[in-house]
Sequence to fold (241 residues):
Amino acid sequence: MTEQTEKDQGEQHQELMFSSVYTQERADRYFRKHQESLSRRLSDWREKQIARKVLKMAGNPRSVLDLPCGAGRFWPILAEDPERELLAADYSEAMLETARKFQPEELVRRFRIFQTSAFDIKLDDEAVEHVFCMRLMHHIGESADRLKILREFHRVTRDSVSLSLWVDGNYKGWRRRRLEAQRASGKKVFKRRFQDRFVQSPAVLEKEFDQAGFHVLGKVDFLPGYSQWRTYVLRKKERQT
Fold:
């Protein structure tokens, strides 16, 4: 087996570990969970508020790829501009089916929907003005994997990217780091089959953005000082002549 084949299989395995869990039943449950309690409804409201803010920060892009689109939770926000060209993709076919089933028919018709991997997006170079990526990157623990995704985003977008992930430097991030240290030391049993959520240093992430060909246009914290969620807006660097 060649080194490249091993690398490709490793990337596929890493992606499937957190993508293959979405059976149709689990995908349907994922759609409903954001309205199950007051705290989840408030969280959903805040995330959608942030989505509007980052789209404005990115210059109200004329075409947007929502990847991974999940159950279409952000589709109403993305479709608020009636002239915007909309694409939506996910690695999970079950998630796409849930989105088609539960989102309003007239909203679904606004989107070109397709199955793809963030590691290898089935679009031409510079196919859209903006890649909108919510709730993916905090699942990616390895820098090499994050860079591969970021470089795919760089290839597919003409202008900008927005993405959410977990950062440290806040209370929840500190708690997560502490938990991970306890698990690593054996003081706390890790009940999951694999770790699928990671807190990262903003300095490390921003260096990776730079390596992938982006500069940071802006950032929005979910709840500054408390929550680990941060959404970055990135813009492609100008080509050096």
User: Anything to note?
Assistant: The CA atoms of residues 58 and 160 lie 7 Å apart. The longest helix spans residues 38-57. Confidence is low (pLDDT under 50) at residues 1-14.
